Amino acid sequence: MIAWALINVTTALLVAAILVFKLAAYYDTFNWGERIGMTGMAAMCVLRVGPILGREALPGPTPFDDWSVAALHISMLIFFSSRLYRIVRHWRRNDQAKREATAYLASRGKL
Fold it and tell me: Which pLDDT score, from 0 to 100, does residue 58 have?
């Protein structure tokens, strides 16, 4: 049981460290929703350490057990929906650029 708790804590802290590094190093490459989602995910990963270690020492549930997991899932939803929005916007811009290029080449007699 303690080995799994240590693995869970280490994994949670590594995920938080990776998210913080990505936010610090590549801040300008993310949109606002992705930044909010990544910040929330990093914070909730750190907040999950207490309940994980508390299960080993305390017999009952802690206040963090329910809402930290819910907040982590909400942060993940924000991040992935913002990422999906970016991907869809990119597809639409590519389609628009193809249409404009085709129209331009057709007007010049190249097609």
Answer: 67
Per-residue DSSP letters for the chain? -HHHHHHHHHHHHHHHHHHHHHHHHSGGGS-HHHHHHHHHHHHHHHHTHHHHHHHHH-SS--THHHHHHHHHHHHHHHHHHHHHHHHHHHHHHHHHHHHHHHHHHHHTT--
Q: How far apart are CA 103 and CA 27, in angstroms?
A: 37
Calculate ∠ Cα 9-12-16, nearest 5°: 140
Q: Give the tens place of pLDDT for each residue, 56-76.
A: 676 666 666 778 888 999 999
Closest alpha carbon to 37 in 24, 48, 23, 49: 23
CA nearest to 56, candidates 10, 9, 13, 14: 9
